[in-house]
Design brief:
The protein is mainly beta. The protein has one domain: 8 Propeller (Methanol Dehydrogenase, Chain A), CATH 2.140.10.10. The protein is built from two helices and 38 strands. The radius of gyration is 22 Å and the shape is globular.
Length: about 525
């Protein structure tokens, strides 16, 4: 071991000793199952397998939140930070956009070790370099990379243990989602629909990195579902670029899929285009499809269904039901039975002009004239970024409310001739950007909703459409942030603003909370800084 390696090991050991007799490793599958009862740590992207993004910690609460102050700041030296850290017994593991991993002392923000990744090839990305986080299992961390690799690191030293190819980056594949550790497997999504990939979801052996199963989200010609593409279409998109959820009792993974390709122009892909813009329910052991639900058939507005699926056990119409719910990018909130996939209901939560309703089968009844046009169409709500996007929602079992950020926005949609697939090139058949409109046509809000009915209880309006996720806690608090960097706390029951901090830069990430030396801290990336807060 060289001097730098020795110093890193000693620094990590000193931090572990300061935290207590155990460093929290290994993180077993049983540990992950019990994550909701372990609020000192933050062990998965969504906080737990149900993706509640909630903490039972209440040291910081609605009575004292006004006394929050900055404890430390760690400069990431990268822009557009979308990571959600994980925390294990006072050690924080965080990713940077270029697929780097950093271990920090969660008490001080001091670096313990850094893994810097170098891309193996030129990478096509539609929307900039991003990475959303890690998974942990045993003594190993798992990260996907921009050049479509899966890497296992030793959590104690940052040493790379193995690297496996997920897909060929030369064919426009990339990976940005945090993996999900389930049993002895690492579940991995893929990105690149705007580059004409054929989407899939993979499972890898956590010890060896060998691929165990793959579910293709775009059927090959002749396979079931290929008829929904006019007979087959292998560059159909359907990427899986946001982390899903898991029900251990049903042994079922719930994972959303992205838009079909080419985007905006559906002329070359007649039909519903399965399994794009869908929620998949897959057997965790085999990857076999149990059921699917498609939110936006034959999408031409880039309304991915990659929103985080939230798993709830609630009483609905007098019956105890297992639900999976999500505010979809198309502007409707959906509730499904997660055992059967049965559609229960959908309600709009932002202004939308493209569908008269969602019928009893869960299919949209379209309004004519709401498709992209060659000359542009300015009349469509929501905009290309949708009523909701990839940012994490939160479910609070105390208030029994679902909290999520929403975007009230219309944009100009247009279509062009459908492109030919080319490695390294975009695969757009139009666009959804262009001119923005008056302030009253482009703003944001945080919504508190009763999830089993879709009824909105309150809204907190902000000036611009948000990109931040949401955290709720047992302290009767909801945390989120504005695009301009205003990190704020609301009363979870009323929506009243109780505290804010002006971070002065963009926010594209979700807050988390945990314990450090027995005290509750809250962190969120603002700009290229990761900031931790504590009570004065």
């Amino acid at each position: 071991m060289n001097l730098i390696g020795l110093m890193t090991t000693l620094a990590f050991a000193a931090t572990v000793l300061a935290q207590g007799p155990s460093n929290g490793l290994p993180v077993t599958y049983e540990t992950l199952l019990k994550a909701p009862s372990d609020p000192a740590n933050w062990l998965t992207y969504g906080g737990d397998y149900s993706s509640h993004h909630y903490s039972s910690l209440n040291q910081i609460n609605s009575g004292n939140v006004q006394h929050l102050r900055v404890k430390w700041i760690y400069q990431m030296h990268r822009s557009k930070v979308e990571t959600t850290p994980i925390v294990v017994n006072g050690i924080m593991y965080v990713t940077r956009p270029q697929s780097d991993v950093i271990a920090l002392d969660a008490e001080t923000g001091r670096t313990l070790w850094t893994f810097e990744y170098r891309l193996s090839a030129r990478v096509y990305t539609c929307c900039g370099e991003v990475n959303r986080g890690l998974a942990i299992l045993g003594n190993q961390l798992y990260i996907t990379t921009l050049d479509a690799k899966l890497i296992a690191l030793d959590a104690r030293s940052g040493r790379m243990l193995w690297k496996r190819d997920i897909a060929d980056a030369g064919l426009n594949y990339t990976a940005t989602a945090a993996p999900l550790a389930i049993k002895d497997k690492i579940i991995v999504g893929i990105a690149g629909a705007e580059g004409g990939i054929r989407g899939f979801l993979d499972a890898y052996d956590a010890k060896t990195g060998e691929r165990i199963w793959r579910f293709w989200t775009i059927p090959a010609p002749g396979e079931p579902g290929s008829e929904t593409w006019g007979g087959g279409f292998l560059h159909g998109g359907g990427s899986t670029w946001v982390t899903g959820s898991y029900d251990p009792e049903l042994n079922t993974i719930y994972w959303g899929t992205g838009n079909p390709g080419p985007d905006y122009n559906g002329d070359v892909r007649p039909g519903d285009n399965l399994y794009s813009c869908s929620l998949l329910a897959l057997d965790a052991d085999t990857g076999k499809l149990k059921w699917h639900f498609q939110f936006t058939p034959h999408d031409t507005h880039d309304w991915d269904a990659t929103q985080v699926p939230v798993l709830l056990d609630v009483t609905l119409q007098g019956q105890r039901r297992k639900l999976v719910v999500a505010p979809n990018r198309n502007g409707f909130y959906y509730a499904l039975d997660r055992e059967s996939g049965k559609f229960l209901f959908a309600k709009s939560y932002v202004k939308q002009t493209w569908a008269k309703e969602i019928d009893k089968a869960g299919r949209p009844v379209l309004i004519p004239g709401q498709e992209p046009l060659p000359e542009g169409n300015d009349a469509i709500w929501p905009g290309v970024d949708g009523g909701n996007n990839w940012m994490s929602p939160s479910y609070n079992p105390q208030t029994r409310l679902l909290y999520f950020n929403a975007r009230e926005e219309r944009r100009r949609f247009f279509k062009t001739d459908a492109p030919e697939f080319q490695p390294g090139e975009s695969y757009f058949g139009g666009g959804g950007g262009g001119a923005r409109f008056r302030p009253e046509e482009s703003w944001g809000k945080l919504i508190a909703m009763t999830p089993e009915t879709g009824e909105i209880q309150w809204e907190h309006r902000i000036a611009s459409p948000p990109w931040a996720g949401v955290l709720s806690t047992a302290g009767n608090l909801v945390f989120s942030a504005t695009p301009s960097g205003n990190f704020y706390a609301l009363d979870a029951r009323t929506g009243k603003e109780l505290w804010h901090f002006n971070g002065g830069d963009r926010v594209f990430a979700s807050p988390i909370t945990f314990l450090s030396r027995g005290k509750q801290l809250i962190t969120i990336p603002i700009g290229d800084n990761l900031i931790a807060f504590e009570l004065e």
